[in-house]
Amino acid sequence: MKLCRPRPKPGMGVNIASLIDVFFLLIIFFMSVSQVTPRQMRIDLPSAEQVNEQSNALRKELVFSVTAGEDIHHLGERITADQFGNLVRNEAETAGTSNVEVHIRGDRTTDWKAVRGLLDICAKAGITGVKVGVIKAS
């Protein structure tokens, strides 16, 4: 007695068990390679012997971070020196030069000329309330 196999009907379903495995592998791959960026840059600040901790609550504070690669960051976004100058000048015009305070946080390994360039831009904008971030020496 010869038994014959039933022929599969055209258009019948696809075996999705292997597709589920591939789907989960793709999810794991993309989760492992995706980057999570923090809101603030982690900066290794230099230390200082004296720290002036006075602050005026009425002043507009702008915080900038300069990395070792001389990249400038503001509110978690990388900006250029021209954008820094435009932002500082706009705040100086809006709030007045005496009401704007610029905080520059430079990494310990940052070349000083990058920070000095930002200080020059602030001076040209007429802003005298400039602070350079450091960690108080213990």
Please give a structural write-up.
The chain starts with 16 loop residues before the first helix and ends with a strand. The protein is elongated and about 100 Å long. The protein is an alpha/beta fold. It has a domain at 47-136: Nucleotidyltransferase, domain 5 (2-Layer Sandwich). The strands form two sheets. It has a five-stranded mixed β-sheet, with helices on one face. The protein has a two-stranded parallel ribbon with strand order 1-7. 33% of the residues lie in helices and 21% in strands. The protein has three helices and seven strands. Helix 2 runs parallel beside helix 3 (112-125).
In brief:
33% of the residues lie in helices and 21% in strands. It is an alpha/beta fold. The mean pLDDT is 78.
The CATH topology of one domain turns out to be Nucleotidyltransferase, domain 5
Q: Mean pLDDT, rounded to whole units?
A: 78
Spatial order of strands in the largest sheet: 4-3-2-5-6
Work out the strand percent.
15-25%
Number of strand segments? 7
Structural class: alpha/beta
Highest CATH level, the class of one domain: Alpha Beta
In CATH terms, what is the architecture of one domain? 2-Layer Sandwich
SSE series: HEEEEHEHEE
